[in-house]
Amino acid sequence: MKKSSIIGVLILCFAFWGKAQVRNEIRVPDPEGYRTLKCDFHIHTVFSDGLVWPTVRVDEAYREGLDAIALTEHLEYRPHRQDIIASHNRSYEIAEKTARNNQVILIRGSEITRPMAPGHFNAIFLSDCDALELPMIGTSDIHQPIQTDIDFARGQHRTMTFVFVRERSAEGIREALLHRRTAVYMDEKVIAEEQWLKELFEKSIDIEDIKRNEKSIVITLKNNSDLTFHLKKTRHNPGLVYFREYTIQPQCRHRIEIRLENNIQGGDINFEITNLYAAPNKGLTYSYKV
Ligand SMILES: [Zn+2]
Description:
This protein has 2 domains: 33-111 and 130-186, TIM Barrel (Alpha-Beta Barrel); 203-287, Immunoglobulin-like. Helix content is 23%, strand content 30%. The protein has 6 helices and 14 strands. The strands form 2 sheets. Strands 1, 2, 3, 4, 5, 6, 9, 11, 13 and 14 form a 10-stranded mixed sheet that branches. Strands 7-8-12-10 form a 4-stranded antiparallel sheet. Strand 2 (68-71), helix 3 and strand 3 (105-108) form a beta-alpha-beta unit. The longest helix is centred in the N-terminal third of the chain and has 18 residues, at 2-19. The N and C termini lie far apart (76 Å).
């Protein structure tokens, strides 16, 4: 009797453990016709020089709201090889079932490393070397357990890639990478081609209300995404008086006031979004007519 109640408690504990994983969705808009997947394609486990077991990587990714990961063990550098003797496919094979159960897409990968700086970079499946244009990819290169490097309580996230897919699958990700439909998400920065930045901004912001009188225009907007936007005023009609710098926080409602001087009725609110990069050190320029 006693024994079976102990077993009962144990089973309950495991049942609870199984459900204890909470997924933190990362809210980022989908560009028209695509879905935005959050991906990290550069991760290590004990099967190369990382410090955690492959299934733990899947659990971490699930909890952090990622859609896809690649375990990219070094082919040459395997400091745990005395204790772990396995094929280069083994970490993928171990993680595969957990990934399937959690609907995390697992992509087979490897890292090729040479001691001399900067090591070797290999691109594969090329059909035309002249047309070699690579997608922008941001990854964590995580070796420690994820919470050692990232303070989630402070709203931090790992560096990842947003991949704009037609379908949520490994093949969908491959197709999107081949067509360079990606953005890099690192701290508060998003790095991508201009069209994606523009769409991410526009689809994050919902203009809820615009109030006008002769002296001012007040815009109420809501940022529905987890992205932060740092705005900085650029050249504009001096009759429009508005913020010099303004931060639109994630998941927040904001009221922006524009004063009208010299009897003007409206015009273009011009600004740069300084944390969205389409080119090095150059934020996305944007204009909003009022
Ligand atoms: Zn690495």
